[in-house]
Design brief:
By secondary structure, this protein is mainly alpha-helical. The protein contains 18 helices and no strands.
Length: 492
Amino acid sequence: MSEQPDKIISGDLADDEAAQAAAALDDRRARLVRGWIVPSIVGTALLMTTLNASSVVTALPAMASDLAAEPLRLNIVITAYLLALVVFLPVSGWLADRFGAKRLLMVAILLFAAASAACGLAQTLPQLIAARLVQGCAGAMVAPVGRLILLRSTPRHELVGALSTLTMPSQFGPLAGPLLGGAVVTFLSWHWIFYLNLPVAVAALWLVRAYVPDVPAQPVTRIDWKGIALMGVGMGALIYALDNVMRDDVPAVLLTGCAVAAVVSMVFYWLHARGRADAVVDLSLFGVRTFNAAVIGGAFFRLIPGATPFLLAMLIQVAFGMSAFEAGLMTFMTAVGSLVMKATAPPILRRFGFRRVVVVNGLITAAIFASYGLFSPATPHWLVMVALAAGGFFRALQFTSTSGLAFADMSDAQMGRATTASAIVQHLMQSVSTALAAILLYALMTASDAASLTTATVTPSFPIIALVSLISLAWFVRLPGDAGAAMTTRAR
């Protein structure tokens, strides 16, 4: 009589075990999608923009020759993209909340691809500038909107791993771009720098549509047009002034006017935005300690990744006399170090916590960057490559840590505004750091009465920028010991 109940109980247990195994498998698949597949897909779109932005620099001489323009005038090809990028960034978060992040990301990829095709087909400099302006508007939406999708679709304790995958293109693109640009210009033509975006865009569109979750639109307030105008004028004027401060063909009056306009616009924006919940950049977010430290403190750290490609190019190509392709192969080791970091960031942050990592790793990153100033033409190439790989690893770890820390204490309702504010500071510092590095080199040349760049004039720039980056520690050391704990601990 007891055999039948025993069989029933045994069958129920087997069913429960099978159900638990199936649930565990589904959970692993879901974590794989959230932690690797979706960030990699969004990162592919981000890589398209970062590679294009950095590889264009290498192609400027070829563009000047083909378009019958002065090489110095081709600087506007870069400036036009950056201006459109920073001016349009403030509205990207509002558009994502209004129309849905996934839909906006697909539109941005499509628009970037169309603008890339227009750049490749340009026959005159004005046509190329117009296409680059459209490309900058599209690029302004890709990074913040892609990050917003991850923030709203990934559990907090999985965000560090997802963000480390997503931020990899930010480290990889600027360093691989010159190598790609040099190869394309050498073996094909400068037009292909833009045409190569088209198959990447097609693949990214299909993958986003198939695998990226559909993050719903959010309730939005009235768009802050006045704030957008003030922020756009301020950032655009600042970038233009810094980018052209060393050019003899730009009047000093114009540069001074741009600098004054930048300061005045930012002051008026602060007066306009304080206490306003609908401001395009919500100043109340900076009252959150983790966000304030990650964004403001992290801005000083970002001087290092922003200046690295430019300073290494000046040192290895100009001072050491290596070719662009040889220099690209050598500096590519920095990207290799960044890729290795991806798998190690989550366990490091779980073991030591955000505060200890950003403080200690900030010191390590600055020390390695300062050591680049010891390079000379006699330094063995293998030693240079090891130092560059180590620098890429620790720099990417700091970048991932600050990116995750910024959103540790943000509510779902704040994610869109926090993403916009963080992206604005990141892109602004990326633009400003290169200009500041160029100004620093000019000052070092002037101080040493050198007629051209030499090893002796370039190498001091590395320890100087490393010391300035340590200002970030003033924010990091004041963080509580458990800062960002929600990002590394599974909710129970």
